[in-house]
Amino acid sequence: MSASGGTKAILAALTANAGIAVAKFAGFLITGSSSMLAESVHSVADTSNQGLLLLGQRQARRRATREHPFGFGRERYFWSFVVALMLFTLGSVFALYEGIHKIEHPEPLTSPLVAVGILVVAIGLETYSFVTAIGESRKIKGDATWWQFIRQSRTPELPVVLLEDTGALLGLVFALIGVGLSEVTGEPVWDGIGTVMIGVLLGIIAIILIVEMKSLLIGEGATDRELDSICAALTGGRVDRVIHIRTQYLGPDELLVAAKLALAPRLELSEVAGEIDAAEARVRERVPSARLIYLEPDLDRQLV
One Pfam family for this entry, by name (predicted)? Predict the structure, then answer.
């Protein structure tokens, strides 16, 4: 997948979160709601996160150098990992701290209807961002479930934005419940409980993202479907079978393929070169992300 779909989802999320952060912080200043403060910090973190994802895409486009001969595609994985850490530290930890403090020292809310109005508007803006991310993800998700897409996607930005938007929407609902119950019952402790729920939610999402981005940073190979397609493409002509194969994603759009191929015996050198070139061409046709292909010919010793 090109970065265009991910960029569109990131820009939609950045625009929505920037506006929401300003509105939420204004709501906190008016109402004193800890849920609003936690959501304000959450939106500021999300806005910063989208900026980091855009930075990662920009850095990944740099040309390969002698020091980094395979390019900078993994910059996108690195900055997505940083985003997950920020979501945990700025979002989850702060919300948990503020929520526990508000439970231990509850304070009545002022102008709770203002908070409710801001939260409702924020839900609308987050829904716009979420729908955009869903639309862009559908283009590459295929028949996988959403959980499989998040776990298996080699494109980091869309799963990050999807989970962030999911967390933002649920967090807004928790904040709305906390503020609403505080007003209905006259017990401001509910505002603190809503804040703790936001912190727990963000922590879960952050841990999922940290685990997935760490796996991509270490290096993940082709999916089972891609690997089957590559092996089928390599076999053909005078290539009898694939002796062994290794793959690794150097970036979301760049797959490294290294394989040892068993060729028919008694081929001339020019014929061997032709078979290797043809095998590379077949792989590139079936799996466009296979940009770097290194093939080692060998005799099919089963036929010698």
Answer: Cation_efflux
CA torsion angle for 26, 103, 209, 10 (degrees, to 10)? -10
Domain 224-299: state its class.
Answer: alpha beta
User: What are the tokens at 274?
Assistant: 């032709």
Taking a C-beta distance cutoff of 8 angstroms, is the pair 153, 159 a contact? yes
Look at phi and psi of residue 237 and say left if phi exceeds 0, alpha if psi is from -120 to 50, else beta: left
Which residue bears the tokens 């948990």? 96
> Please, what is the average pLDDT of the chain?
86
In this structure, what DSSP letter does residue 88 have? I
Question: Domains of the chain: which residue ranges?
Answer: 4-218, 224-299
CATH topology of domain 4-218: Alpha-lytic protease prodomain-like (1.20.1510)
232: pLDDT strictly greater than 90: yes
Residue 63 DSSP label: P
Task: Give how far the C-alpha of residue 40 lies from the chain's centroid of Cα atoms, to the nearest Å.
Answer: 22
Q: Which residues pair with 251 in a beta bridge?
A: 254
Q: At what angle do helices 157-185 and 4-31 cross, to 10 degrees?
A: 20
Q: What is the mean pLDDT of residues 240-254?
A: 92
Confidence band for 2, pLDDT divided at 50, 70 and 90: very low
Candidates 116, 87, 110, 127; CA nearest to 194 is 116
Helices (H), the chain: 4-31, 34-60, 75-86, 94-104, 112-141, 146-152, 157-185, 189-218, 224-234, 269-286
